[in-house]
Design goal:
Length: 324
């Protein structure tokens, strides 16, 4: 039996690897640019499987319109764009790639941290503008001796913490779902509440999923609790940060800078944040390397095919918790 697989993710998935895996399984593959629910619903009306990126909205409307849909594969980690409960109610399996880009995202978080700390974009613009002046980056402080706070402590944060070893920093983390001993294995101290992490950290790196509980987590109150010379690094989800509150905090001197790979709206369009020297931006690219694309594609397509063959997938999402 030939299965029809619709793919709405051509940026993240490696085309050659995807074709090789699906062709070997006698599956037809169709790509779509659909992102909004109505368009996605039309695209998957007769599909057996759907593979999506973070921008494709798989709502209850989509699930209801796809009578033959058996599985939705998220080409990535977060499933906040998928109504997992609606899928479960319809007998549709949702799966993801939990180990996706752990190396890349943790490295990118480190790069953004250093770029902010060492004012690299400011110096770059200055030199290219014909200047040769070290003072344009004042004030600047060394990394050694600082405290790095991690918001959530999953695989990405754990790998980031491992990379911080040897840099003579203290690392603390806030995650109510992770026991202290798991953090202690990496030399990380668990703090009991979010407010403590904010007040004690020189650098705050965000690794939390986007949920109803965490949306807008970094609001005006959170920035007010941070140190005036603190840096914020976000490689998780843009919706975790209230961007107006971030702009106000930066311009009022409540915090010193921010490294942002993800935004509340993507692409963000014109933003006052872009006018600030203390803000370093990248276009949701922390996931990317050629190696990560190939690994992602192979993992998600093979797991989708397991479901279509009537087998148990390796990485199903629990509809009760939204976790894997």
């Amino acid at each position: 039996m030939t299965h029809r697989v619709v793919v709405s993710d051509t940026k993240v998935m490696d085309e050659a690897t995807r074709a090789a895996v699906l062709d070997a399984a006698d599956a037809t593959v169709e790509t779509t640019d659909a992102k909004e629910p109505a368009a996605v619903a039309e695209a998957v009306a007769d599909a057996d499987a759907l593979i999506v990126d973070a921008g494709t909205q798989v709502t209850a409307e989509v699930v209801d319109a796809a009578d033959s849909l058996e599985v939705v594969g998220r080409a990535g980690i977060g499933v906040d764009n998928i109504d997992v409960q609606a899928a479960a109610d319809a007998g549709v399996t949702v799966l993801n790639v939990p180990d996706y880009s752990v190396e890349e995202v943790s490295t990118h978080a480190f790069a953004l941290m250093l770029a902010c700390l060492r004012k690299i974009p400011t110096f770059d613009r200055s030199v290219k503008g014909g200047e040769w002046e070290w003072a344009v980056g004042q004030p600047m402080h060394r990394l050694a001796g600082q405290t790095v706070g991690l918001v959530a402590f999953g695989k990405l944060a754990s790998r980031f913490a491992a990379k911080l070893r040897g840099f003579d920093v203290d690392v603390i983390a806030y995650d109510p779902y992770v026991p202290a001993y798991r953090m202690g294995d990496l030399g990380v101290e668990k703090v009991d509440d979010f407010e403590t992490l904010l007040s004690e950290s020189d650098i705050v790196s965000v690794h939390a999923p986007l949920t109803d509980e965490t949306r807008g987590l970094f609001d005006a109150d959170a920035f007010d609790r941070m140190r005036d010379d603190a840096l914020l690094v976000n490689t998780a989800r843009g919706g975790l940060v209230d961007e107006k509150a971030l702009y106000d905090a930066l311009t009022n001197g409540d915090i010193a800078g921010a490294g942002l790979d993800v935004r509340a709206s993507e692409p963000p369009g014109e933003s006052p944040l872009h006018d600030l020297d203390g803000v370093v931006c990248s276009p949701h690219v922390a996931w990317y390397s050629e190696e990560s694309r190939a690994e992602l594609t192979e993992t998600v397509t093979e797991d989708v095919l397991r479901v279509l063959r009537g087998e148990e997938p390796n990485n199903p999402i629990d509809p009760e918790t939204g976790w894997f």
